[in-house]
Design goal:
mainly alpha; 4 helices; 0% strand
């Protein structure tokens, strides 16, 4: 059976393009704000709280790497 893949939105922040999402990811403040809003809009409250607590260091670097290679933010928790 063939797997069905979700169509990529291009970028992870609010459906923006991949390049614009990458630029927003590189800036630490916008990465934190956009990441928290994105996770809350997905209904992942615990993940949003972790982004607030760890967002300035650990998740920011992971987001940059993930956005470059995969075009979406780094998701530590999917709960």
């Amino acid at each position: 059976m063939a797997k069905k893949f979700k169509k990529s939105r291009g970028g992870d922040y609010f459906g923006l393009g991949r390049l614009l999402s990458l630029i927003l990811t590189i800036i630490p403040v916008t990465n934190l704000v956009c990441g928290v809003i994105t996770r809350i809009s997905e209904g992942k409250i615990v993940a949003a709280i972790l982004r607030i607590v760890l967002g300035w260091n650990i998740i920011w670097i992971g987001d940059i790497i993930s956005m470059i290679f995969h075009g979406r933010i780094w998701r530590i928790l999917n709960i």
